[in-house]
Structure formats: C-alpha cells, structure tokens
Amino acid sequence: MSLWVIVTLCAACLQVIRTGLQKSLTHDVDNVSGTWIRYIYAMPFVPFLFAAVFFVEEGIPSISLSLLVYCLAASVTQIVATILLLTLFQHRSFAASAAFAKTEGLQVALLGVLVFAEPPSALGWLGICLGTFSVLLLCPWRQLTATGKVIGYGLGAGFLFALTVWLIRSSYQEVQAGTFASALLILAIMVTLQSLLLGIYLYGRRVNFATIWHVRQRAAGVGASSLIGSLCWFWAFGLTNPAYVKVLAQVELPLAFFLGRTVFSERTSVWEISGMTIACVSAVIICYA
User: Which long-range contacts (CB under 8 A, 24 or more apart) does 111-115 make?
Assistant: First the structure.
C-alpha cells in the first residue's frame, strides 16, 4: 500500500474525531471562537514541530517570503472554510454536513486542471466523479427552502478548502516537496499565523475568552486531533496529486455517519447510506489511479 494512502486514511479518521469534537462545542461558543479553538489549543505543540523539523533535517530550512505568503493565504482560506463548515452544522445532520464540504474533491481536481496544471488520470476522474455523485445522493432535496442555503455553505466551504489545498501544495515549491520535515514546517507556520489572526479578530470583537477557557478539556482534544490530522494532510499533499488525497478521504463519510448515529443519535436515510457506500467505492478506485 502506498505511503500517501496510509497517511490520508489517518488524516480522514482524525478529521472525523476533530469535527465531532468541534460540533460538541457549538452550543458553548460561536462559530469563529470554535474555529480559533482548533488553532490556539494546537499552539502549545508548535515548538515541538519546529524541534522535529530540526531533528529530521538537522537544521530548519530557510523560510522565504514566498513561503510565508503561501502559508498566509492558505491560513485565511482555511479559517473561512472552517467557519462555513461549522455554520453548516446548524442546518443539517453531522453526516450530511460533512458530505456537502466533500465537494472539494471535484473542486480540487478542477482547480488542478484550470489553474495549477496538474490534472488527474482517467481512472482518477472516474473516482472523483463517483465521489461527487455520492455527495449528490446525500443532499436533502426534499427540504428545498433550507437546501439552497445549505448547498451554498457547502460549496463555499468546499471551494475554500480546495483552494487551501493547492496553496499548501504550492508552498512546497519553496521547500522540499513530499518530505515529512516540509510538512512539519508548513504546519508550524500556518498554525502560528491562524492563531494570531483569529486571536486579534476575536479581541477586537471583545469576545469573552473565559468561555473559551471554560471548555478547555474538550478543546484540548480538538487542538490535538486537528494538529496531527493536519500534519497527515499536509504530508499527503506533498506526496501525490491533492485531488486523489481528497477523494480517498471520502471514507470519512461512513465514519461521520457512524459517529452521527452513535454519538449524536441522528437518523440517516437510505439515500444517505447509498451515498456513503458509493463514496467508499470511489475511494477504492482512486487508490489505483
């Protein structure tokens, strides 16, 4: 089994855990504060990331201005995408909310073709199209008035996540692509930038930081799972075409379904189960693309 497959599966599992923990915080903090929790509670681990880079590379690579620009742009798009994703949870079930954001698989592929000159193979396109079809099956078409808003948030989150992926991929141009140390370095820079940007924004809004501290036990789990999961994502993006990574990551949907049923006591329709099954099939196909 290819290294990128193993790393991506680890990332998908950790993302389900992190997203589930974030959803449990939506009743205690607003969406922006919930997004900041993901980064600020990962900050204590950042010195260890830089230490790991030094250990692996025997010295931290030079940090160029271009690298910082790519990381800053990726930080902003990921922040906005995460806020949209948390907003989604207020309109639809946990499993289906995660599914709408999974349109990013197709959007990553399209951006790769139109902007970044890195198209998937024919078999890769088959897996991507099947994955997109599985998302359509998960749409709550019967709830037409609510669906427009939900699809808008979902497509918006998916596009911004897709753009984030390619910005991270582009940042590898400034370091050695595909290496574990490069993923560590990019992650350390982005977590630092995201913590500062959102922290300043929340301070300007005079948010009650005591509330964020009050949920620290659950928030610590969000920060840890987010950090390790992001490290796996970043590493995978440097190992292969990001579109393949995101389509394989749709195995997250059955995991989200299971979490929604067991933890949040949500009911899932036959159409949603069918969509998740097709998502698994597309993931298998992409492994051989």
Answer: 111/162, 111/163, 111/166, 112/166, 112/241, 112/242, 112/243, 115/166
User: Residue 230: CB partners within 8 Å, gap ≥ 6?
Assistant: 11, 187, 190, 191
- Digit-by-digit pLDDT tens for the chain (289 residues) are 688 889 998 998 888 788 778 777 777 788 788 888 889 999 998 888 888 887 877 666 678 899 999 999 999 999 898 888 777 766 655 555 556 666 777 888 888 888 877 788 888 788 888 877 876 776 655 554 455 666 677 778 888 989 999 999 999 888 876 678 888 899 999 999 999 999 998 888 888 888 888 888 888 888 898 899 999 999 999 888 888 888 887 777 666 666 666 665 666 667 667 777 777 777 777 776 6
Instruction: Look up the pTM and report it.
Output: 0.81
Residue whose tokens read 């579109």:
243
The span from the first CA to the last CA of the chain, in angstroms, equals: 13
